[in-house]
């Protein structure tokens, strides 16, 4: 469903007002010769902070070049007829830009030098969420209890994930931020001395407090599409062990003219966490070998959970709670699938 038209563009509106008041600041560029080619009546060119494509094929948000530089980004390609640019930061970098790529040293090459790498996103007081579009975060894997002992990524705001490590590809997450407490988030990567080849690339977008596309608070993933793949951190890791210290919901909006939902596990068996941790699903799980018995977690390797029913009526938004506080259990080898990674599809009415 497209809801672009209904979205109040408050942030962008505020930017334009700021531009009119401050003149030189924000996204206005005094027209130079190029502009005169097609805009003889105007002395100022304005453009929205719309998505654009950088020279490396990344999509970014369009910024006036001087605005981007003032905000601390380095330029990444051009957009808006050559007037705008997208940004990215490396270790120690800070960016205010909506749409900033945070990248590991030498990306897309890997590195394996012990270091602490802090990358900071700053925002205005009307921003309540950061959306992280993860191209890849490839850090040393957790141990079998889901503890990030070698490498660890932490966020200075939001408590959904106390630690992140392992391998995660092509998915998104939301951080809730409180601009009254702090108008920045530090992404701190503590990289250990091991030889694991690390790299990461995350696009960070800023979502305004009154924006319709804001995810409900507490939703670590929020899907507004009829199909998609739900994925917890480290679902693409070699050991796929789920992480310790998670507490969030995966949320799915009910789309227009969709009345059923089907979940499909990507592996043979349904993932359920070790007992002591919680995956609360809006469906029931049964033990395939003993179908009269419901299961909510696994401590016995003999249990093969199946989802019942596989397709159900979609009466409203779906929420799947994932709470892992148990660092004492061995998470590895529980069932055949040791992380949350599943597809969904909303069906017609
Ligand atoms: C950032 O860009 C997104 C996508 O274009 C937009 O929805 C959002 O309002 C922008 N945020 C700010 C703070 O301008």
From TrEMBL:
Coiled coil stretches, renumbered: none
Keyword annotations from UniProtKB, A to Z: Disulfide bond, Signal
Entry-linked PANTHER family: CUB DOMAIN-CONTAINING PROTEIN, INTRAFLAGELLAR TRANSPORT PROTEIN 122 FAMILY PROTEIN-RELATED
Taxonomic source organism: Penaeus vannamei (Whiteleg shrimp)
Disulfide bonds listed in the record: 148-165
Matches recorded under Pfam families: CUB (PF00431), CUB_animal (PF26080)
Domain CUB per the UniProt entry, residue ranges: 91-207
Matches recorded under SUPFAM superfamilies: Spermadhesin, CUB domain
Signal peptide: 1-26
Protein name listed in UniProt: CUB domain-containing protein
Cited PROSITE patterns: CUB (PS01180)
């Amino acid at each position: 469903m497209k809801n672009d038209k209904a979205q109040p563009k408050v942030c962008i509106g505020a930017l334009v007002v700021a531009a009119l008041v401050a003149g030189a600041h924000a996204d206005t560029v005094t027209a130079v010769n190029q502009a005169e080619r097609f805009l003889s009546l105007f002395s100022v060119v304005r453009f929205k902070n719309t998505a654009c494509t950088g020279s490396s094929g990344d999509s970014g948000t369009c910024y006036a070049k001087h605005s981007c530089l003032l905000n601390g980004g380095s330029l990444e390609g051009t957009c808006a007829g050559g007037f705008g640019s997208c940004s990215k930061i490396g270790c120690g970098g800070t960016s205010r830009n909506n749409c900033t790529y945070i990248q590991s040293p030498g990306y897309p090459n890997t590195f394996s030098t012990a270091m602490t790498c802090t990358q900071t996103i700053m925002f205005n007081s009307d921003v309540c969420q950061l959306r992280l579009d993860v191209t890849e975060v490839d850090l040393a894997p957790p141990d079998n209890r889901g503890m990030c002992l070698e490498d660890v990524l932490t966020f200075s705001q939001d408590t959904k994930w106390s630690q992140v490590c392992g391998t995660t590809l092509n998915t998104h997450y939301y951080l809730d931020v409180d601009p009254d407490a702090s108008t920045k988030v530090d992404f701190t990567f503590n990289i250990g001395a091991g030889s694991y080849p690390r790299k990461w690339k995350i696009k960070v977008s800023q979502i305004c407090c009154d924006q319709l596309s804001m995810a409900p608070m507490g939703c670590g993933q929020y899907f507004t599409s009829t199909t998609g793949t739900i994925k917890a951190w480290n679902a693409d890791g070699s050991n796929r062990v789920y992480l310790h210290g998670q507490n969030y919901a995966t949320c799915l909006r009910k789309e227009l003219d969709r009345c059923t939902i089907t979940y499909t596990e990507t592996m043979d068996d349904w993932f359920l966490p070790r007992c002591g941790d919680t995956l609360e699903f809006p469906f029931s799980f049964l033990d395939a070998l003993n179908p009269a018995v419901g299961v909510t977690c696994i401590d016995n390797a003999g249990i093969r959970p199946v989802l019942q029913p596989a397709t159900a009526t979609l009466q409203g938004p779906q929420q799947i709670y994932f709470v892992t506080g148990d660092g004492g259990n061995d998470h590895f080898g529980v069932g055949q699938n040791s992380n949350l990674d599943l597809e969904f599809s909303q069906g017609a009415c």
